[in-house]
Here is the input.
Amino acid sequence: MKFHHVIFLAIGSVLLAACNMTLAADVTPPPNYVPPTPVPTLGPLYPASAPDVANGEMIYAEKCAPCHGETGLGDGPQGKELPVTVIPIGLPETARKATPARWYGVVTQGNLDRFMPPFASLNDQERWDVVAYVFTLHTTDDELETGKNLFEKNCADCAETFTNQEMMSALSADQIVGMIREGGDNFPAFGSDLTDDEVYAVAAYIRTLTFAPPAAPTVDSVTETPVAAVAETPSAEETPADGGQAQVTPEADGEVTPEATEEVEAASAGKVSGLIENRTGNNLPSDLVIKLRGFDHGTDPSAGPQEIINLETTVNEDGTYLFDVEIVESQIYLTEVEVDGLSYQSEFAVVPADTTELTLPTIVVYETTEDFSELQIDSLEIFFDLASEDTTQIFTVYNISNASGKTILVKMGDGQNVPFIAFPEGASGLGYEATQGSAAFLPTADGFAMPPSETSYGLIAFASLPKAKEIQISQPALLSVKAVTLYLPEGVEAEGAGLSDLGIQSLQNINFHIYTAAGFDKGASLDFTLTGKPKDTAVAPDVTQNSTLLIGIGGLGVALVLAGAWLYLRDKNKLDEEFDDEDDEEFEDSESIMDAIIALDDLHRANKISDEAYKKRRAELKNRLRR
Here is the structure.
């Protein structure tokens, strides 16, 4: 069994929600099970409506950039820690070979070999939106303008041919180039005399013909807004250093000059408002400060969202707040507030068309407690990998709910242990990771916090045990557990009181021997014995030798990137050997260069090379990647 298949399945927030699993009719699915969409019923492999690139950019920033990086080079903070390279989808040589239909399938179903989960949280149109945006990462405004001019000069009457969503979704840029040079039934071979750069610029522009046109900006008339009551908000360059709001200063006689009126009109000032719902049991501080952050896409489609607004104001006594700020369609806004030492954040909101007022989702703040006994483990899903000769690798997925009405503070201490999670007796704990789709953990100085949430919290606990002919597992419970599922490699069996054998089941074409057990109470343990040998043991490495294992607690940072506190497992000798080998080798392709960059980053984080050497070597590798 492939080790990376197992780890990917463990990373899912609700494991079976993303997998293609066949169960007998009389088997009760695990808690939170969501039936998957089988491959044959994906529907048409082209969008029902023209993709919205601006919406796709926002989705990419939240869902994709943590691994793929802001420009798609595979250098995102989370992607650097994976034990495989992240494919650089932002490179022309990668993107030009891909079709939208293919990448839509990957977003929908995931890519097990590359640790990419299926994004079931996105609807069909949102997946097409983000795919469309990804196809802009390898282009520039200048290239698109060149392509547009050449296309309109040589084939202006054939534009309609290239707006067919079904046809274009099935074509790669390389295939479009072939059509341009060879011609077709409805258009001539107008690219036969173009250079490679020119013909690819035309192909990039043709791709944009399938995108939804950007919304036209709206201009408010002077009469719609009383001039004297409008507050002007500075641009990103004019934002005051102290975070305060700049206001229009009236003339000495109290009147506003015509010049000032024109400036106010151009600013199209608007309002961003929201509410803090106080469930702490105490009054909020009278001087409670809330921060507004605004992001824009800029003019370069290959660049990520840029922060353009960072303002502060005081929350009103009733919990409301208001910012007078210029807002433009498709900008992204969110607010942050610190209460009892915890930073709460609103969900982000996007400015709709034809509006000058934006209301942000309510921020709810809660009473805090360190009593984690109010948490509930809804399900425990345990994966075993026995392919290593020396160790048994264990990945335990905890799905946890907090319905207490309080934010629960979790202190990890010097040992960086989660106090309500116990590793199997005799096992070496390696660390933790938040699952994809987990409710957002709030980082604290010595651990993390878990506000009440309708979405469950997901944590993976990594551990290893010495290999033995018979492996005794005793899994303690520090909180009560409602249900347990065991996933064993085919060929391995479990024996223990209360286990129900569901036999061999296939998940994404990988066979698991699956057992279930009823829940058990706090202070009890689940005891069983593993026997047998995995059917396939050829390719799984030892997790304790995996220098790029990602372990830690992750959280959503400013709704745009995944942030958190990460722990790293390092093997010094192995890293030194790998780095020496990579330093001497010839790089045959972009993936091998990405491998070298990842290994270099690992060494630097582990303080095994100097800053100067790291910066110099990384610059060299990035230059090679660009070439």
